[in-house]
Amino acid sequence: MWKTTRWLAKGAKIVLLLIFTFLLLEYGMRAVKAWTYDGCLYIGAPSINSRLDRKYGWMSPKSFRVYKNTACYGTGPLTYNEQGFRAPPPAEATNAYPIICILGDSTMQGYQIPDGGYLPHMLQHELEKTYRKPYVLPLAVGGYGTTQEWMLFEDFGRPLHPTILIWHWCGNDPQNNDYIAERCFGPSNNNERPRPYLEDGGIVIRHPYPLHICDRFDEMMSIRLVNGFLLKWTARPASELPPHLENGWKVADELIARVAGEVDHKIGLVGVGEDRAISMFRAHGFQVAEYSYPKSCTCLPKDSHPNTEGHRLILQALMPVLRTELKSLDASAPHN
Prior knowledge:
It contains eleven helices and 13 strands. With 336 residues, it is an alpha/beta fold.
């Protein structure tokens, strides 16, 4: 009996030590990532920029404010409203004109850049020079594909009856739209998180992890690190990717067509050289603004996203097309 008790005590100590080691690793990784990448010390969640969400896969944090300090992206507060978007409170959209809704992923979320330094905030400031009460709503979360962007539009954008919709295209969107393309060929794209996909006309949540315990546990950085290695180890040859990538394009085309039927004035914001995406948007009645920025406007080699100057160049490419759309609306608008 005494020996059994002793072994149980030793076993309990080992279990507690393992738990302590796991938690130390987990929170240490959170702190290191937040400090080195985001320029702040934060351990409250595995990601400072998003949270697990049962419907959308993940979402920006709601009613959240953090102070960021990086040499490349700038210094200052970064704020999300109660819906989880980098916009004024939703109530301020009441009687606003124009209402500009922006769909996109990490570039339009701008999670690296403090308030005021990225395109949606710059656009808000630009519109305030002409209009009494404009409202710019960026429905954008890092890592999103076309399906998630469409879901955000249906839930948050369409109810506002936006004056103009701007849809920012990212080159990895087709891969984000197909489960097999992500799971077996590009494991970094799905963030090792569950994602909704459009399949056979309906939304299906699929889990990408080789090691799956439960969503909350899988969300932890240490587990995502393990799954990242496993996904790379089980990746298929790139030669098998094209048919799955084509399905991703098909999904994008279908959802862009759905939104096109709901919004009269719409602009595709697409990088120079993305000819297939440009043709797709134009085929569905979108005006297209093509943009580019040099590598000096990114934070390479650390991060390929545009910095504030890069966002300013994107805005410069957007404004002539946007002004043309607004000019055609202003004569009949009741709140100009």
